[in-house]
Amino acid sequence: MAHFNDEHINLLIVDFLSGEIDTEGLMELEKWIVADIDNRDHFMRMREIWHLTRKDTSASLGGFDCDAAFESFRARCAASPGRTRLRTVKTILGYAAAVAIGFGGGALLLSRGTSLPQQPVGYTEFIAPQGSQSCVNLPDGSYVMLNGGSTLRYPADYGQGARSVALSGEGYFSVAHDTGAHFLVDIGGATVKVYGTTFTISSYPEDSIATVSLISGHLGMKSRTDSIEHHITSGQSLTLDRADGRISETGFTDGNTDWTRGVLSYERYPLSRLVRSLERSYGTTIVIADPALSSLKVSGKFFRETQSLDDILESLAATGRMQFRRTANGITIYSD
Question: How far apart (Å, rounded) are the C-alpha atoms in residues 37 and 23?
């Protein structure tokens, strides 16, 4: 993994939050964020401090004062261990902005938040195309990392009494704590209620199950066919069976979160499910020509940064159970 200078990264974060970051800096910041969970957590803490600072100064001054906000921000950072020196912000922050730049076929989507004027309720939607990952910074300071083939949607009045989003696909969430407003995730067939926490959700509509894995904190999940809200704490997972709406507690493994570090982990996956994961990760179409192969159980761990799709397919072929060939429309897997 690449090494980053803490001072330099903190300055990039301040530039982003203050609206001064340029395209080169934004690309570097996104690369740093997706490189490691600790990096994402650090960014989240800095973003939440900034958000709280804006809220404090707006309340106390009857409006937003940039200098006062930065002084409060610097004081909060100094009170938190491990923080480094931050330079003066000279820009006025009385606006909200979203920046999108290309990254691995996807986009970096980070929102600089402030209160928005009243407007008719609409929706904001972020999409991570297949073969990419995207980062979304929500207006309340919560952070979401979307895996390939995923969509996150939330209303324009998000945070005004409620914090509700809808996820189709897979996402890593780091939720800003707010005792006055629960964070709700609609995953189609069930709703996840969060109490300030970090977790992942895998909820692709074509999959028969949806899985919520809790890294830290506390959350609950309730299906639309069940009156009971199921609760878990750190290191536990819940699985929704889409066919009957049943929710059950399942074991938490590193494989549930490995994708956030660029690792593809499969433990006794049916080949059909593994193929869908590879399609999302590498942005291609894969066809299993022999239906008998679809239920074949496969295990393995692969690294996206160093292993190509061909490398993974060669590993599958080495089992002696299958072969593959490239076609005009993608890749075909067939019996050996």
Answer: 23
Residue 70 CB contacts under 8 Å (≥ 6 apart), including other chains: 18, 53, 88, 89
Q: What is the pTM of this model?
A: 0.63
pLDDT digits (tens, 9 = 90+) for 143-192: 899 999 999 999 888 877 779 999 999 999 999 888 778 899 999 989 99
Give the pLDDT score at 51. 54
Q: Which residues of the chain fall short of a pLDDT of 70?
A: 1-5, 17-19, 44-45, 47-121
For 65-84, b/e burial (b = at least 16 CB within 10 A) is bbeebbebbbebbeeeeebe
Q: What is the pLDDT of residue 76?
A: 54
